[in-house]
Amino acid sequence: MLEADADQVLLAPQAFEAALLLAARSKELGLPYEPWLERARAVIPAGPDWSDYFAIVQALRVDPLSDDRDRILVESLKYRATTETVAAWRADLTAGMGSAVLRAYLDLSLACQYTVNDRNLTIAAAVQQFGHIPLIEYRAGLCGPTQAPHLTAVREADPDFADVDLALGRYALDIPQRPDQDEGLRRLTSARAAFPESPAIVASIGSLHQDREEWSDALEAYDATLGLVPTHRDALLGRTVTLSHMARYEDAIAVASQILELGSWFTGEAYYWRAWNEYHVARVAEARADTDQAKRLMHSAPVLVLSGMIEWHERRFDESETELQNALTIDAGQCEAAFLLGAVRAERQRWSSGAAAFELAQRCYDLSVTLRREAIARINAGPGSEEGKARQIARQQRAMTDEAQHRDEAAQNAAQLQKRAGV
């Protein structure tokens, strides 16, 4: 019996460390981490150092896409550590109980989340001391895009270490000006295959497909996310936007309504998209009411454009002009607002001011076409596969065709109104 008790004393720190590291890594990967925390709590050794280690992992950031946003917020506020507490923890980690690897991992985690000043020094020191241990190099690589080589080194040394792919996928998508969407999707797809229970991974895939206007793929990813977390706000909003672009108006209205019933998050966006879809199915009074709610919650040019369209539909021309002008004040690149403003003024037989609005729309669309040509040049010069580049370029070209058509129509309308004005 005494020998068995002695064995338990020896094994408890090892079991605690293993459970604690798995809890920390689950947080990083957007996986459910509570079971590992509970397992660690069940075997926590006696002593203040061990309880501090447990508190450190509780205080580590949860991936914002890993769960319901309300729950994440509550957990984050409950366990967030003060600057003084973090400093004390880090001081104790230099020579506390437990393995040096555990203490280095926790110190890196704290430095990367809470401490900016000596972050790079902490990373360099940890890698120099424990560079032969993949777990430490992995944690160093999570500290930001500049540390990505640590992650690629781990993956090259161990092809099965798919933990790195979520961060590498996000880093690829965050490259300024030239995001590598193909690499991002490849990495995220690999991460999903390894960790299918991570809402953060599959929600990130949905967002990427949405950005690429791959609506069916985006919908599949958002549905999968909601299968894991039914109240996942980002997935609900992404699903609303995706269904809207798929012209599934009633379905989009239903999901937007669900966001509003849940409350707290994305309510302005939900009112806007519900109004947008209601307008497309000719439920104008409901669209008007929801647009007014969106305006109270968001200072947004697209909301004002939609409001201006509805006001025009209801023959309230003064209000329509005001909304469209305000949209252009917020965002001069709202070409549709300028075009609609010209149409409203034309209907009111305000020929000169209508022509001026259409000329503004013409210049706006022409600039947009120019910017898309520049975007195509950046795509050609940037990273990614030829297939991926072709897909992005095709999307830009489709938009250019539409914008060129609107530009030419605006020019014709401006010329006609100038004639009527006797210019």
Structure description:
The chain has helices at 2-29, 34-42, 48-59, 69-79, 83-93, 100-114, 119-130, 134-141, 148-157, 164-173, 181-194, 199-211, 215-228, 233-245, 249-262, 267-280, 284-297, 301-313, 317-330, 335-347, 351-381, 386-420. By secondary structure, the protein is an all-alpha fold. It starts with a helix and ends with a helix.
Question: Summarize this, please?
Answer:
The chain is an all-alpha fold and about 425 residues long. Helix content is about 80%, strand content about 0%.
Per-chain topology:
Elements: H1 2-29, H2 34-42, H3 48-59, H4 69-79, H5 83-93, H6 100-114, H7 119-130, H8 134-141, H9 148-157, H10 164-173, H11 181-194, H12 199-211, H13 215-228, H14 233-245, H15 249-262, H16 267-280, H17 284-297, H18 301-313, H19 317-330, H20 335-347, H21 351-381, H22 386-420
Helix pairs in contact: 1-2, 1-3, 3-5, 5-6, 6-7, 6-8, 7-8, 8-9, 9-10, 10-11, 11-12, 12-13, 12-14, 13-14, 14-15, 14-16, 15-16, 16-17, 17-18, 18-19, 18-20, 19-20, 20-21, 21-22
Task: Please tell me the overall pLDDT.
Answer: 93
**Helix and strand sequence:** HHHHHHHHHHHHHHHHHHHHHH
Describe the sheet with the most strands.
Answer: none
Number of separate strands = 0
Give the overall form: elongated
Low-confidence stretches: 1-10
Quickly give the structural class: mainly alpha
Q: In which range does the helix fraction lie?
A: over 70%
Helical stretch tally: 22
Measured by DSSP, the beta-strand proportion falls in under 5%
